[in-house]
From TrEMBL, chains A, B, C, D:
Protein name: 1,4-dihydroxy-2-naphthoyl-CoA hydrolase
Top-rank EC class of the record's enzyme: hydrolase
Signal peptide: none
Hydrolase among keywords: yes
Keyword entries, A-Z: Hydrolase
Pathway per the UniProt entry: Cofactor biosynthesis; phylloquinone biosynthesis; Quinol/quinone metabolism; 1,4-dihydroxy-2-naphthoate biosynthesis; 1,4-dihydroxy-2-naphthoate from chorismate: step 7/7
Domain of life, per lineage: Bacteria
Function: Catalyzes the hydrolysis of 1,4-dihydroxy-2-naphthoyl-CoA (DHNA-CoA) to 1,4-dihydroxy-2-naphthoate (DHNA), a reaction involved in phylloquinone (vitamin K1) biosynthesis.
HAMAP family per the UniProt record, alphabetical: DHNA_CoA_hydrolase (MF_02101)
InterPro entries: 4-hydroxybenzoyl-CoA_TE, DHNA_CoA_hydrolase, HotDog_dom_sf
Transmembrane segments: none
Amino acid sequence: MPFIYSRTIRFQDTDAAGVVYFANVLAMCHEAYEASLAASGINLKEFFSNSAIAIPITHAEVDFFRPMFCGDQELIHLTPTLISEQEFRIDYQIFAEGSSDRPLSQAHTRHVCINPTIRKRENLPEMMWQWLKQWSDSETI
Amino acid sequence: MPFIYSRTIRFQDTDAAGVVYFANVLAMCHEAYEASLAASGINLKEFFSNSAIAIPITHAEVDFFRPMFCGDQELIHLTPTLISEQEFRIDYQIFAEGSSDRPLSQAHTRHVCINPTIRKRENLPEMMWQWLKQWSDSETI
Amino acid sequence: MPFIYSRTIRFQDTDAAGVVYFANVLAMCHEAYEASLAASGINLKEFFSNSAIAIPITHAEVDFFRPMFCGDQELIHLTPTLISEQEFRIDYQIFAEGSSDRPLSQAHTRHVCINPTIRKRENLPEMMWQWLKQWSDSETI
Amino acid sequence: MPFIYSRTIRFQDTDAAGVVYFANVLAMCHEAYEASLAASGINLKEFFSNSAIAIPITHAEVDFFRPMFCGDQELIHLTPTLISEQEFRIDYQIFAEGSSDRPLSQAHTRHVCINPTIRKRENLPEMMWQWLKQWSDSETI
């Protein structure tokens, strides 16, 4: 079951071409990720300033099919997938509200769990397994 | 009656000091302004790309009392005040959700209606009078 | 010959994890693109608000190898490649200044030339051919 | 003697009205502040993640006289003033390059030195006195 995040396009998201600035689409996806973590009971303040465990993004990728304008209402569908005990991937599809046949944009990010001090890989903490179980497509995590 | 906008602090809002980057507080206030316009039935896409009428900000000011952290829930109270037939001011107070006695931050912006091509003042359009009536403290607009 | 753009990491680029927020790496690459256009004599104001021709990004992709911190000096190497008469790709490599052996990050974007009103493909304008000739690796454009 | 910072307006700075988004003007001023600190030999990475001393902004204010467009070259004149042993103010004037008679925008920020853990005031560290001496108008610091 994907996590679904509703987002209104804001003036600050746009650029002088009148549409959402390309890199801001990835920032919107990250907002959806944060909302999905909070929905699984994860404390965001601790999560993003944890000195023992960090889960930085190692790769991000986004396709732009149709432009988004200030005031538009979008729905971001988020689906995480486990890659290994230290890594997961998140797929994002962004739809105009009320029209879920073809996305405006799609993206994915890849995340790896590390000890941020020594920058070595660590196994994902228990709370991330819970989060993966909750929002993943797979029955087998 | 002020317009009240609920906003979650996101990772992107923060900086390396671990709290919201100062200029982003004004951007959050502008989000509340956009939400108040939409709540009055104003089409944001047309509003912000109108070639006949624009209402740019001429002054902005913000006080920071306490820091905001990723994941925090804030309530932004927005109150517009008419200054002249071409100008209004918006006051913002930002509270931590569940604690409305002392704001974390307060701000105001001043807006003037112009013809953006010739950059001369114009009277505020009817929809802005409606918006002012709806969210202003004053009984007399 | 790649275009090389020097960029200092700023406080605003960072997030509460103390390093550059992931999507801002793509924004830095876009800055390098803008600087390369200006270096080829292209007027940026006209370029980005042209109502006859637009060259939106259709795909963007970025890998993160090592974090970047506030105050760091980076060099962004930009290399465009022609894909078709309507499309090009830009490759970016970001190095810490003074250490060009292994990039901190790499990215690429894909751009397609369209008429923004009807959103149909158009051939790239002459100025973009000049820009491609100037900064591309290829001898054969 | 003010510190002068040269800044090109970038596509990301703009919004769908075709000009720089209002809050980004304050972010540009902060960039000038960072550049002035670096010019006084201050290490920005340490400065902005120091756990013993922080110098947050308590107030910011900005006036907008004329719009700024993508590709425009601006000069930001920065002048700090000591307020007390714990506080200083920075005045900013933003000029179009090549026209220094009337600013496009002006701003100021107020900063207070604190211990970030207990959030109590502290005296400004020696390096900030040096920075104030270097860029302040006053002869008497």
